[in-house]
Amino acid sequence: MKKVEIITTAYEYDSLIELSSEEQLLINESKNAVKKAYAPYSKFKVGAAVLLENGVIITGTNQENAAYPSGLCAERVALFYANSQYPEVAVKAIAVTAFTNNKFIENPLPPCGACRQVIVETETRFKTPIKIYLVSKEKITVIEDAKTLLPINFDEHYLEP
Ligand code: THU
User: Fold this and answer.
1) 4 — phi, psi (to 5°)?
2) Residue 136 sits in which domain range?
C-alpha cells in the first residue's frame, strides 16, 4: 500500500476589485443570471456564466422539476448550451454563484460532482484550461482549471481498449 497525497490549489479574493475587468464582467453576468433561475423547490437560485474563446458569454441557471432528479444545475445548463451552440469554440472560464433567502450566498459555491465532471469533459474536449470562479456576496474563489477542482477524474482515456 502506498499513500498518495493530492494537493490542490485555490485563490481566495475578498473583493471583486482585485480581479480584472474581464473577470468582473463574467462574475457580474453570473450574478445577474440568478434572476432567471427556475428553483421553486429549493429556492436556491444558481447562476452560471461561461466565457468562450471568441468572447461570447453564455449564461445558465438551475432548472428544477417537480420530479426532483429531472432538474439540472446552472453550470451544466450553461455549458451544454454553450457546447451545443458553439461546438467548435473552446470554453475559457466559468463563474458560478447562488442567491437564496433574498441575498447572495456568504461563501463561494462549490459545484457539485456531476458539474465538475462536465467541466472536466469540456476542458479535455477543447484542450484548453477552464478557469473557475466560485462567487459569493463578496468573496471569490478562483481555481486555475477543472482538473484542479476535480483532481481524480474520469476522462476519455479510460475508454480506450
Ligand atoms: N445547484 C446548482 O445549480 N449548481 C451547483 O453547483 C449546486 C446546486 C442547484 C441544484 C438545485 O436546483 C439547487 O441548486 C439546490 O441543490
Assistant:
1) -115, 120
2) 11-151
